[in-house]
Structure to design on (1108 residues):
C-alpha cells in the first residue's frame, strides 16, 4: 500500500532550493533568527526532549534514594529540590513545549497554511520559554550561593503558601521559580494566541471547522484552555513576587492573608493544566489510530464535542485537589459531581477510538503500539481518577503514592507514550528519514514493561499509606520491597528512553528514506515533501472533506459523499 | 453479549478487589506497622473502606469490560500477512451506539455520586456526642503539639485517645491548627487526612474501635524534614487513658539529684523553646518536655526515646533529622550528661 | 497544477476567514481578562479582612474626573477609527492625540492619588491586605494603560512621519480594541474598588 504513488505531483516536483550550505555558525544563526513554524516546532521539541532527559535524570536520583529504607544517597534538602525541579520541569519545560512543538510543526501543514498566523510572535514565544527554562535552572547556581548542589527551589511544584513566604523560604530559590514561571507563562500565552489565530484564520480553501483534522481541533481547544489557565497562574505568581519582593500580604497568614486562596489560584490553573498536557496525546491518538486501523475516525462530531466538553468541565473541577483543606460538605459534594462528569466525555473518546479500531485492519507499527498502550493506560488512569474523585476515599488517597501513580499514568502512560507515537509517526515528515522499527519495538516493549512495573506498584504502596514528598522511610513501615520494585521499573524505563534517543539520532543519518507519505495517511501534511519546503505547499491546497488524501487515493469512493 | 461482559467484568472486578485487599494486609484487625487504608480501625476509616470496595468493584468491572474489548479488537482486527490490499469498510459513526455509551456512563456516575455524597455528609456533618474528647492538634515544622484544653495539659508527637465502642461511642474530636506552614494529619487506619493550615482552622474526628498504637505521618509538604514528621496515636483503654491523663496533668518532676542538669536547662537556650511545667522554662516553639519520658520516641517519631539517643539528639540534632529546627547547643560533655540526666527524670 | 483535484465550483466559493489580527487580539483580551479576574477575586476576597488600618472608607476618594477622562477616551478613539476608515488622516490624528491626552490625564490622576495615599495616609503595598490588593489591582490596570499609551504614541509618531494610511485602518482597529478593553476593565476595577469595597 505504502508504495502507491500519489497523484499530487504538482506540489512535489518543485524541489525547494536547498538552504545555502554555510558554516556551522551560519547554520546556528539561521536557527536562532528563524521564524519558520517548522524550525520553531523542532526547537520546541528539542527543548522538551532535552528537559525530559534532565527531569528523568532527577527522578532516577529520587528513585535510587527511595529504593531502600533509611537510605543516605541524597540529603533531605537535595531530595526536596530534585522533586520540585522534576515536577516543575516536566510540567512547564516538557509538557507545554511539547504542546507547541507538535502544534507548530503539524497544525499549519494540516491546515494547508504556509506558516502560523504570527511567525515573529511564534519565535518570541519560543525564546521566552527557553529563557524561562534557563532562569529556572540558573537557580542551581544563583539560588543561594555556590555551595554544595546550590539551592534550587524546594517548595514542591504546587509551591503552597505560606511555605513560599520569605520567612520559610529565605534566599532566592523561590524567586527564581516564580520569575521563571512568569517568563515561560508569557511564552505560553503567545503560543496559545498564535495557535488559535492560525486555526481560525489560516485554513486553506474548503477546510471548514468541521473538516479540520481532529489533531487541529484538539490543539485549538488546548490553546483556548491554556489562554484562560496559564494567565491565572501568571497572576498568582505576580502576587507571590509582590509578597516576596515588596512585602505584600497576599498570602501572609500573620496579616490575615489566606493560604487557601493560593491553593485555589494554583489549582484553577493546575487542574485544567493536566488536560492541557493530555490533549496533545488525544490529538496524536486521533491521527495515528485511524491511519493504522485503516479507517476513518469513528464519530468525528462526538469527538469534537467531547473535547470541547472536557475543556469546559475541566474549568470547574479544580477543588478536587483540595478535598482535604476543609471545605464545607456542600462544596466537596459539588466538586465530586463536576469531577465525575469529566469521566463521561472522556469515556466517549475512549469508546470512539475503540470503535475506530473495530473492523479495521490494524497495522502494529511502532506508533500504533504506543497508541494502543495509551488506550489501555488511559482507561486505567481515568478509572483511578474516578476513585480519587470519591471525596471520602480521597481523604485517604490524597498526597499518597496512589495519587503519584494516578497522575503518572496520565502523564507518562498517556502523554509520554503518545508523544513517542507522535515522534515515530511524524519524524519521517520532519527529517525525511524513518526511525528504525526494530529499535522502536525494543523501545516500546521495554518502556511498556518498565512503566507497568513502576506505576502499577505505586498504587499499592499508596494503599499502604506511603505519602508523597518524603525523602526516606523506616523499614518497619513495610514499604521497602515495593519501593525497590518501583525503582527497578524506573531504571528499565530509563534504558528504554536511551534506546529511543539512540534511535532518534542514528535515524537522522542512517534512517531509511521516508518519501512523502510513508504511512499511507490522509491529512494534508503527507501531500508535501519530507521535509517540507519552507513555504510548505507550492500551491494553496483546496480540500473537500476531512481526509483530502483519501479522496485522492480513492476517487471511486471519496469521503465528501458522506459528510 | 453485553450482559455477559458485564457479569464477567463484575466477577473479575471482585477478584481484583480481593487482590488489592490481600496485598494490603487487610485481614487483621487492630493496629499494624504498615498503615494500610484497607485495615481500618475507626468509624470514618471503616465507612470509607466500605465505600472504597464498592467503587473498586464498579471501576474494576468497567476496566475489565473495556480492556477486554480492547484486547479482542487487537487480536481480531490486526492486519494479517495474507490480507488483500483493500481498505476495510469505512464507518463514520453511529448515533445509536454513541448514545448508548454516553448514557451508560451517565448512569454509573449518578450511582457513584449519590453514594459518595451520602458518606461526605455522614462524616463531615456528624453530630458531636457529649462524651467526645476534644484535642487541639497544632502542626509545627516538624513536630506535633497536642493540647487537651479540658484537661489542661499539653503533649507532643504522641497522641493518646480513649478506646471507643459502637454501643457507647466516645470519639475524639481534633481541632487542627498550624503554627507555621501547612501540614496534614494522616493516620490511615483511623481516618482520612485533613490539613492543618495557618489562619484556617479545621476539624476532624476519629472513633477507634481497637486499642493499640497507630502510625501515620504528615501528608502535606512542610519543609526539609517533612518526611520525619511522624505521627503516633495510642488508643488506650479508658483506664489506661485516665492514668496517662492524670500523669500528664502533673507538673514536672523535681528531683534534687539532677539539679545540675536542671540548671543547665534553665540557663542555656533550652528554655527559650521548651516548656517544663514547674520551672522557669515556658518556651512554646518546641515540644513541651514536662513529661518527656512518658513518650516512646523523640523528635516526632524519628528515633526511640533512649538515653543514648536523647544525648545524641541534644548534642547534634542533624545526626537524626538533618534540617530540624532544633539547634546544636554546643554543650560540653559534662553539660550534656547533666541535662540528659535531668530530662530522663521527667516522667 | 493544484495539488488536490478541483471539484467544479469549489474555487469560486467565497472563502472568508476572520482577520488573524482581530482573532489574536481577542485571544489576548481573553487571557488578560483571566489575569484581571484573579486580581479582582483577591481584592473582593480580602475586603474587610485587613487586621489593621487604614481602611478604604478612611482614605479612598471616588476618582470621578479620572473615570470620565478614561471612558471618554474610548469615544475619541472610536471617532479616530471612523476617521481613518474615511481616509481623513488629519481628523484621525486629532482624535488619536485627544485619546492620548485623556489617557495621560488619567495616569496623572492616579499618580496624584497614590502620592496622597503614600505620603499623607501612610498606605503602602506592605501596610495591610487592603494596601496590597489595592495597589496591585489598580497598578495592574495602570500598567495596561501605560502599555496602551506607548502603542498609541507609536502610532501618533507614525502619523507625524506620514506613515499612516487608510489601508492601515484594520490594524488601527485591532489596537483600538485593546484600548477599549483597558477602558472596560477600569469600569470593573472602579466598581470593585471604589463602590463595592468602600
Amino acid at each position: 500500500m505504502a508504495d502507491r504513488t500519489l497523484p499530487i505531483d504538482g506540489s512535489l516536483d518543485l524541489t525547494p532550493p536547498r538552504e545555502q550550505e554555510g558554516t556551522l555558525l551560519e547554520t546556528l544563526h539561521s536557527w536562532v533568527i528563524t521564524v519558520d513554524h517548522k524550525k520553531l516546532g523542532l526547537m520546541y521539541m528539542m527543548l522538551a526532549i532535552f528537559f525530559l532527559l534532565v527531569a528523568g535524570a532527577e527522578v532516577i536520583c529520587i528513585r535510587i534514594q527511595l529504593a531502600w529504607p533509611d537510605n543516605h544517597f541524597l540529603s533531605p534538602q537535595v531530595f526536596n529540590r530534585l522533586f520540585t525541579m522534576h515536577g516543575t520541569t516536566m510540567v512547564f519545560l516538557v509538557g507545554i513545549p511539547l504542546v507547541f512543538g507538535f502544534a507548530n510543526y503539524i497544525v499549519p501543514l494540516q491546515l494547508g497554511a504556509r506558516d502560523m498566523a504570527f511567525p515573529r510572535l511564534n519565535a518570541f514565544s519560543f525564546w521566552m520559554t527557553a529563557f524561562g527554562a534557563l532562569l529556572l535552572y540558573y537557580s542551581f547556581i544563583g539560588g543561594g550561593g555556590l555551595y554544595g548542589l546550590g539551592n534550587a527551589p524546594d517548595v514542591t511544584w504546587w509551591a503552597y503558601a505560606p511555605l513560599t513566604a520569605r520567612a520559610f523560604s529565605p534566599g532566592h530559590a523561590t524567586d527564581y521559580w516564580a520569575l521563571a514561571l512568569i517568563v515561560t507563562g508569557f511564552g505560553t500565552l503567545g503560543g496559545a494566541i498564535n495557535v488559535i489565530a492560525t486555526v481560525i484564520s489560516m485554513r486553506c480553501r474548503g477546510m471548514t471547522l468541521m473538516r479540520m483534522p481532529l489533531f487541529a481541533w484538539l490543539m485549538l481547544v488546548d490553546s483556548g484552555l491554556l489562554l484562560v489557565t496559564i494567565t491565572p497562574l501568571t497572576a498568582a505568581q505576580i502576587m507571590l513576587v509582590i509578597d516576596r519582593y515588596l512585602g505584600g500580604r497576599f498570602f501572609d497568614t500573620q496579616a490575615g492573608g489566606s493560604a487557601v486562596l493560593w491553593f485555589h489560584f494554583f489549582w484553577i490553573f493546575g487542574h485544567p493544566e493536566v488536560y492541557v498536557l493530555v490533549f496533545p496525546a488525544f490529538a496524536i491518538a486521533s491521527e495515528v489510530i485511524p491511519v493504522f486501523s485503516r479507517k476513518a475516525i469513528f464519530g468525528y462530531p462526538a469527538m469534537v464535542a467531547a473535547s470541547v466538553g472536557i475543556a469546559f468541565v475541566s474549568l470547574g473541577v479544580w477543588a478536587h485537589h483540595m478535598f482535604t483543606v476543609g471545605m464545607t460538605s456542600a462544596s466537596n459534594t459539588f466538586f465530586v459531581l463536576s469531577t465525575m462528569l469529566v469521566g463521561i466525555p472522556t469515556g466517549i473518546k475512549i469508546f470512539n477510538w475503540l470503535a475506530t479500531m473495530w473492523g479495521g485492519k490494524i497495522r502494529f507499527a511502532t506508533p500504533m503500539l504506543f497508541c494502543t498502550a495509551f488506550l489501555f493506560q488511559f482507561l486505567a488512569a481515568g478509572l483511578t481518577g474516578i476513585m480519587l474523585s470519591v471525596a471520602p476515599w480521597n481523604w485517604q488517597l490524597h498526597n499518597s503514592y496512589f495519587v503519584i501513580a494516578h497522575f503518572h499514568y496520565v502523564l507518562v502512560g498517556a502523554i509520554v507514550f503518545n508523544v513517542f507515537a507522535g515522534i515515530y509517526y511524524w519524524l519521517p515528515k520532519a527529517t525525511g528519514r524513518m526511525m528504525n522499527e526494530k529499535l522502536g519495538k525494543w523501545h516500546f516493549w521495554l518502556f511498556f514493561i518498565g512503566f507497568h512495573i513502576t506505576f502499577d506498584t505505586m498504587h499499592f504502596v499508596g494503599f499502604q499509606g506511603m505519602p508523597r514528598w518524603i525523602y526516606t522511610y523506616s523499614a518497619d513501615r513495610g514499604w521497602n520491597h515495593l519501593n525497590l520494585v518501583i525503582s527497578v521499573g524506573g531504571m528499565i524505563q530509563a534504558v528504554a528512553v536511551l534506546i529511543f534517543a539512540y534511535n532518534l539520532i542514528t535515524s537522522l543519518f542512517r534512517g531509511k528514506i521516508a518519501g512523502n507519505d510513508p504511512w499511507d495517511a490522509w491529512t494534508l501534511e503527507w501531500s508535501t515533501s519530507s521535509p517540507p519546503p519552507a513555504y510548505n505547499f507550492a500551491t494553496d491546497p483546496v480540500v473537500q472533506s476531512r481526509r483530502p488524501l483519501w479522496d485522492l487515493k480513492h476517487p471511486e469512493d471519496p469521503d465528501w459523499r458522506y459528510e | 453479549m453485553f450482559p455477559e461482559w458485564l457479569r464477567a467484568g463484575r466477577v473479575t472486578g471482585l477478584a481484583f478487589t480481593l487482590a488489592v485487599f490481600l496485598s494490603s494486609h487487610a485481614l487483621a484487625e487492630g493496629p499494624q506497622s504498615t498503615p494500610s487504608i484497607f485495615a481500618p480501625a475507626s468509624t470514618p476509616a471503616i465507612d470509607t473502606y466500605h465505600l472504597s470496595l464498592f467503587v473498586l468493584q464498579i471501576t474494576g468491572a468497567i476496566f475489565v469490560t473495556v480492556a477486554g474489548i480492547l484486547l479482542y479488537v487487537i487480536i481480531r482486527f490486526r492486519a494479517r500477512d495474507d490480507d488483500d490490499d483493500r481498505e476495510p469498510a469505512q464507518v463514520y459513526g453511529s448515533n445509536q451506539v454513541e448514545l448508548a455509551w454516553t448514557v451508560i456512563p451517565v448512569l454509573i456516575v449518578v450511582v457513584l455520586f449519590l453514594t459518595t455524597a451520602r458518606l461526605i455528609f455522614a462524616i463531615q456533618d456528624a453530630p458531636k456526642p457529649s462524651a467526645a474528647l476534644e484535642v487541639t492538634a497544632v502542626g509545627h515544622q516538624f513536630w506535633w503539639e497536642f493540647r487537651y484544653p479540658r484537661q489542661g495539659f499539653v503533649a507532643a508527637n504522641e497522641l493518646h485517645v480513649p478506646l471507643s465502642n459502637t454501643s457507647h461511642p466516645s470519639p475524639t474530636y481534633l481541632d487542627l491548627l498550624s503554627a507555621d506552614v501547612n501540614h496534614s494529619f494522616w493516620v490511615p487506619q483511623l481516618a482520612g487526612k485533613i490539613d492543618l493550615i495557618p489562619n484556617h482552622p479545621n476539624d476532624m474526628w476519629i472513633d477507634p474501635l481497637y486499642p493499640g498504637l497507630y502510625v501515620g505521618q504528615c501528608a502535606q509538604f512542610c519543609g526539609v524534614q517533612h518526611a520525619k514528621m511522624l505521627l503516633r496515636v495510642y488508643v488506650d483503654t479508658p483506664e489506661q487513658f485516665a492514668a496517662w491523663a492524670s500523669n500528664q496533668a502533673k507538673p514536672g518532676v523535681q528531683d534534687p539529684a539532677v539539679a545540675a542538669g536542671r540548671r543547665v536547662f534553665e540557663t542555656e537556650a533550652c528554655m527559650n523553646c521548651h516548656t517544663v511545667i514547674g520551672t522557669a522554662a515556658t518556651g512554646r516553639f518546641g515540644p513541651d518536655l514536662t513529661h518527656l519520658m512518658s513518650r516512646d520516641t523523640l523528635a516526632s517519631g524519628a528515633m526511640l526515646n533512649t538515653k543514648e539517643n536523647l544525648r545524641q539528639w541534644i548534642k547534634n540534632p542533624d545526626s537524626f533529622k538533618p534540617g530540624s529546627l532544633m539547634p546544636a547547643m554546643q554543650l560540653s560533655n559534662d553539660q550534656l550528661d547533666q541535662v540528659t540526666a535531668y530530662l530522663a527524670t521527667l516522667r | 497544477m493544484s495539488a488536490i483535484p478541483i471539484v467544479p465550483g469549489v474555487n469560486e466559493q467565497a472563502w472568508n476567514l476572520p482577520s488573524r489580527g482581530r482573532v489574536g487580539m481577542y485571544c489576548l483580551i481573553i487571557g488578560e481578562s483571566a489575569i484581571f479576574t484573579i486580581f479582582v477575586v483577591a481584592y473582593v476576597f480580602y475586603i474587610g479582612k485587613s487586621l489593621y488600618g487604614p481602611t478604604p472608607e478612611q482614605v479612598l476618594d471616588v476618582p470621578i474626573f479620572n473615570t470620565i477622562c478614561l471612558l471618554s477616551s474610548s469615544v475619541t478613539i472610536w471617532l479616530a477609527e471612523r476617521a481613518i476608515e474615511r481616509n481623513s488622516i488629519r481628523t484621525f490624528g486629532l482624535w488619536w492625540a485627544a485619546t492620548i491626552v485623556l489617557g495621560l490625564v488619567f495616569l496623572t490622576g492616579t499618580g496624584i492619588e497614590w502620592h496622597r495615599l503614600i505620603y499623607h495616609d501612610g498606605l503602602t503595598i506592605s501596610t495591610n491586605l487592603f494596601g496590597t490588593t489595592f495597589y496591585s489591582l489598580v497598578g495592574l490596570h495602570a500598567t495596561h494603560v501605560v502599555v496602551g499609551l506607548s502603542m498609541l504614541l507609536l502610532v501618533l509618531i507614525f502619523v507625524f512621519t506620514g506613515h499612516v494610511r487608510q489601508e492601515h485602518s484594520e490594524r488601527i482597529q485591532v489596537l483600538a480594541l485593546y484600548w477599549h478593553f483597558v477602558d472596560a476593565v477600569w469600569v470593573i476595577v472602579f466598581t470593585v474598588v471604589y463602590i463595592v469595597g468602600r
